[in-house]
Write a structure and sequence with these properties.
371 residues, alpha/beta, Aspartate Aminotransferase, domain 2, Aspartate Aminotransferase, domain 1, 2 domains, 35% helix
């Protein structure tokens, strides 16, 4: 067993002394929340870094998804993937809409655009795809279908910080995109998120909704929520932004070590093309299948016994949870690719500073299972 546990991810933390000047500034101006100077700076710097028109910071990505749905007045049915974190479908349900699950592409594990049109009904109002593991969806196909049928598109871009597609930032597709800045993500503000929008009018609407719908001291014009990012989180984001490119490069080096070590291990299939440009290497997912000697769950348990904590992202499927399993779209026979992926997926530890020795240990145990 290794001397200390290696988790699937560890947050990248700059030296503590580099954070102190930001805290001192907050203490000096005593502005802790409500669109303070740190908040305003981070929105501006993120827009420049990501290559997007407008950034609306939120206190987490789940509230970001809920705000996005509210801002677009979504109701009825929302087409989405069963292969994601629960915030995707929960945000739809919180809005009072119904998630309709569609199967995924076997290569990217993203929503399969070839199956979207067959699921559109008169009650369909929107599509919520997920850029799973930071792999871009087929944005041209999805946006084209949405335009053809008059549907809104909200991309769950929780994994897609800094990710680029053929035309620049993948975040510029759809009506809105929602990022996560959770502690497990490539870019973190401890907790946090952001909504990417394309117009000043939409930013103004989201900013209103994330502050209870309050327009002024005496006027509240809409039913909003409290989804504002606090100054201390924004300050940490400003610090993180200085080193995030180096952190992504470090993640890429880990991914390349995994890719080299798994080459030729029959039955182990990396999901991402890690040599592709525009990725952020937030995850290193593999599919475990024949002729590999162990099942996914057996490999997961063996790694855990050796203090190596991989994760089964995403298992079980959203459509298998009790609040969704009764939906017509949740029938497993209609989701064969997603069912197969959920049964075989395993995300290996990846983070800056994991060390080549720890990656080699993970590889050694996986390689041993092919004997």
């Amino acid at each position: 067993m290794t001397s200390k546990p290696i988790f699937v991810t560890v947050p990248h933390l700059p030296p503590l002394e580099e954070f102190l000047p930001y805290l001192q500034e907050i203490w000096a101006n005593k502005w802790l929340t409500n669109n303070g100077p740190m908040h305003q700076r981070l929105e501006s710097e993120l827009a420049d870094f990501l290559g997007v028109p407008f950034v609306c910071l939120t206190n987490n990505a789940t509230n970001g998804l809920m705000l996005a749905l509210r801002a677009l007045n979504i109701s009825g049915e929302v087409l989405t993937t069963p292969y994601s974190f629960v915030a995707t479908s929960h945000s739809i349900a919180w809005q009072g809409a119904v998630p309709v699950f569609i199967d995924i592409d076997p290569t990217t594990l993203n929503l399969d655009p070839r199956q979207i049109e067959a699921s559109i009904t008169p009650r369909t109002t929107a599509i919520m795809p997920v850029h799973c593991y930071g792999t871009p969806c087929d944005v041209d196909a999805i946006d084209g279908i949405a335009a053809k049928h008059g549907l809104k598109v909200i991309y769950d871009a929780a994994h897609a910080f800094g990710v680029k597609c053929h035309c620049g930032s993948v975040l510029n597709h759809g009506d809105l995109s929602v990022l996560s800045f959770h502690a497990t993500k490539v870019f973190t503000t401890f907790e946090g998120g952001a909504i990417i929008c394309q117009t000043a009018a939409m930013k103004q609407r989201i900013d209103l909704l994330k502050n209870f719908g309050i327009e002024s001291e005496t006027v509240t014009s809409d039913i909003g929520m409290n989804a504002k990012m606090a100054e201390i989180n924004a300050a940490f984001g400003l610090l993180q932004l200085k080193s995030v490119e180096g952190a992504i490069l470090a993640r890429k080096q880990v991914a390349m070590q995994y890719l080299e070590g798994l080459d030729g291990v029959a039955g182990i299939t990396p999901v991402q093309n890690v040599s592709a440009t525009g990725l952020n290497y937030g995850y290193f997912p593999i599919l475990v299948g024949r002729p590999y000697r162990l099942t996914r769950d057996e490999l997961h348990a063996q790694l855990k016994e050796n203090n190596l904590f991989a994760r089964r992202y995403f298992y079980p499927l959203l459509s298998d949870f009790p609040m969704y399993s009764g939906l017509p779209s949740s029938q497993r026979q209609n989701l064969p690719v997603a069912v197969d992926a959920a049964d075989r997926i395993l995300c290996l530890p990846i983070f800056p500073g994991i060390g080549k020795e720890s990656v080699a240990r993970v590889l050694q145990l996986i390689q041993a299972g092919s004997a």
